[in-house]
């Protein structure tokens, strides 16, 4: 009892074909995005202040980033990187200084050098 209009049916088929192409395009884009996301590595850096988290990220940006830092960024970060480097280099020396001081306080060492 239903009457089907060929023009309407033809339009539906035509629209259906376009929709399939659009769906395939979207699915292809989603597939490509999933491939990109699978390659991404996400890192959570934990640590106290001045422990080098920002410096690590900046160094990774220099090594693996899309582009290098601008001259202004280099000037801004240079001092901070030097301070972190010096503080990490000085820590063992300061620790050693305390140990040597404690060693000179030992009774055995004092008695030997009297």
TrEMBL record:
One of its GO terms (cellular component) is brush border membrane. The keyword Magnesium applies. It holds the Pfam family G-alpha. It comes from the Eukaryota. One of its GO terms (biological process) is Rho protein signal transduction. One of its GO terms (molecular function) is GTPase activity. GTP binds at residues 50-55. Keywords: GTP-binding, Lipoprotein, Magnesium, Metal-binding, Myristate, Nucleotide-binding, Palmitate, Transducer. Coiled coil: none annotated. Signal peptide: none annotated. InterPro entries: Gprotein_alpha_su, GproteinA_insert, P-loop_NTPase. Mg(2+) binds at residue 54. G proteins are composed of 3 units; alpha, beta and gamma. The alpha chain contains the guanine nucleotide binding site. PANTHER family: GTP-BINDING PROTEIN ALPHA SUBUNIT, GUANINE NUCLEOTIDE-BINDING PROTEIN SUBUNIT ALPHA HOMOLOG. This is G-protein alpha subunit. It comes from Ancylostoma caninum (Dog hookworm).
